[in-house]
TrEMBL record, chain A:
InterPro entries: DUF742. It comes from Streptomyces thermogriseus. This is DUF742 domain-containing protein. It holds the Pfam family DUF742. Residues 1-29 are annotated as: Disordered. It comes from the Bacteria.
TrEMBL record, chain B:
It comes from the Bacteria. Belongs to the GPN-loop GTPase family. This is ATP/GTP-binding protein. Signal peptide: none annotated. Keywords: GTP-binding, Hydrolase, Nucleotide-binding.
Length: 134, 206
């Protein structure tokens, strides 16, 4: 087999997120926050693509159409990614909506299990067991 | 904005609802070049019809798809397909198929940081398109396995030659697969999980 050949790389000492100041130079894309509302202090809940969202209440009369639609979708748990898909809204826009609903205590967020430096073996075994049944 | 209102919105089919007991989710990322079969693999193992989440960029995506027409190069929306596998009543696994370009990864919070691991899907006709993504995963310390999607007209190489060309250490699994087949895609995921498990065993023995 003739090249192309690759050269292995190694974990970097510095943790990953790019320095905010470099954004312009590196042309990392910016998110657009399409659905406005709340979020006055600029803080958003730390929502992952696979954070599970569950409605805690019926949509109140004060809910916006977007909020009401989201609440109706997650009467049973749904990930942020699925909500983004079903609502046909960008991920960042959905996280803004969910943050509003979290603040209003209309939804509950169930955090994902993320990779640890030393992974949880019982978690990995559970996933393997589940895959075997496929 | 073009929000259509709730009446016309599709939602999950009744059989696609997760149980209320679903407490937490984990994710695995399937990454590779355009047309390498990421969405095919997601679709072949997912219990739901693959869905698409989008993110919007303020700038045109220049050179996103090297082998596609110019219309995609002015797109400001980036899409990512994903699927789902219920592991237990409490635990759900999500699979995301994402392009190899790192600039996309920032669009979705923690796409790789929180993932259990990744599958790098490669096509032996265009091996080099996966080089950069492997390097970036190595730099970020994201464990991954390599799955060679066996396209009928793609050249076949012994795994040892692929390992040399990809400069991968012995312990990183390289497997062949047919992303269209559920059993084959499932085996790739099992290979990743066994690899992660071996890392966990090594890590806790240290």
């Amino acid at each position: 087999m003739t090249p192309p050949r690759r050269q292995r790389r190694y974990p970097q000492q510095e943790p990953l997120p790019p320095a905010p100041g470099k954004r312009g130079e590196e042309k990392n894309p910016e998110r657009l926050y399409v659905v406005a509302g709340a979020d006055e202090d600029g803080s958003r809940a730390a929502l992952d693509l696979v954070t599970l969202i569950v409605a805690r209440a019926e949509p109140p009369p004060s809910a916006t159409p977007e909020q009401a639609a989201l609440l109706r979708l997650c009467t049973s748990p749904l990930s942020v990614a699925e909500l983004s898909a079903y609502l046909n809204l960008p991920f960042s826009a959905v996280t803004v909506l969910i943050t509003e609903l979290l603040t209003a205590e209309l939804v509950q967020a169930r955090a994902p299990i993320v990779r640890q430096a030393v992974p949880d073996r019982s978690l990995l075994e559970a996933v393997m067991h589940g895959l075997q049944r496929l | 904005m073009d929000f259509k209102g709730s009446d016309t919105l599709p939602g999950p089919r009744t059989e696609d609802h997760l149980p209320h007991t679903a407490q937490a989710a984990v994710k695995i990322v399937i990454v590779g070049g355009f047309g390498v079969g990421k969405t095919t693999m997601v679709g072949s193992v997912s219990e739901i019809k693959p869905l698409t989440t989008e993110e919007t960029m303020t700038q045109a995506g220049i050179g996103i798809d090297d082998n596609y027409g110019s219309e995609s190069k002015t797109a400001t929306t980036v899409a990512m397909d994903f699927g789902r596998i219920s592991i237990t009543d409490q635990l759900v696994l999500y699979l995301f198929g994402t392009p190899g370009q790192e600039r996309f990864w920032f669009l979705w919070n923690g796409l790789f940081e929180g993932a259990l691991g990744a599958v790098v899907l490669v096509d032996t006709r265009r091996l080099e398109v996966s080089f950069d993504v492997m390097g970036r995963l190595e730099e970020r310390g994201v464990p991954f396995v390599v799955a060679v999607n066996s396209f009928p007209d793609a050249p076949r190489y012994p795994i040892s030659e692929l390992r040399a060309a990809l400069d991968l250490p012995e312990e990183v699994p390289i497997v062949e697969c047919d992303a269209r087949r559920r059993a084959s895609s499932r085996d790739v995921l099992m290979t990743l999980m066994r690899f992660l498990h071996s890392l966990a065993v090594m890590g806790s023995a240290r």
